Amino acid sequence: MSATETQTETFTLEEILSSLKTVHHLILWNDDVNTFDHVIYCMIKYLDYSESQAEKIAHEVHNKGKCVILEGSFTEMEIYRKILQQEGLTVTVD
User: Fold this and answer.
1) Nearest-CA neighbor of 34 among 43, 24, 23?
2) Which of 80, 89, 24, 94 is nearest to 47 (CA)?
3) CB 75 within 8 A of CB 85
4) What is the reported pLDDT for 92?
5) Rounded distance, CA 15 to CA 22, Å?
6) 41 near 83, Cβ under 8 Å?
7) pLDDT of 23
8) The Cα angle at residue 91 between residues 88 and 93, in degrees rounded to 5
9) Which residue of 9, 16, 48, 71 is surrounded by the most CB atoms within 10 Å?
10) How open is the CA angle 19-22-27, to the nearest 5 degrees?
């Protein structure tokens, strides 16, 4: 009996391609730390939103508790998540 057994998982080309097409969401969550101005600043600086778009996001997060702020590949969302977390924002990838 082997102490370590590995199990190989195989995927069809169709499964691989569909996983690559999956759209992931970057979600900004409301918190009691960040100001409207800081959220707006970050949306403009890092995500290239206009001031009015950034203000709408800040208000939606405040009123609804969260807001999808970006969609794309998992890798892209992870990059933005790390950047925004360094700015103190509460963000997750879904």
Assistant:
1) 43
2) 80
3) no
4) 95
5) 11
6) no
7) 87
8) 150
9) 71
10) 135
Tell me how far the alpha carbon of residue 82 is from its chain's centroid. 9
Residue type at 85 in one-letter notation: Q
What is the chain's pLDDT, residue by residue, as a tens digit (94 residues)? 556 677 777 878 877 765 666 788 999 999 999 999 999 999 999 999 999 999 999 999 999 999 999 999 888 999 999 999 999 999 999 8
Q: Which residue has the tokens 């009691």?
A: 32
Residue 30 and residue 92 in contact, taking contact as beta carbons nearer than 8 Å: no
Instruction: Transcribe the chain into DSSP letters.
Output: --S---------HHHHHHHHH--EEEEEE--SS--HHHHHHHHHHHH---HHHHHHHHHHHHHHSEEEEEEE-HHHHHHHHHHHHHTT-EEEE-
Set out the domains of the chain in order of their start, with CATH numbers. 22-93 (3.30.1390.10)
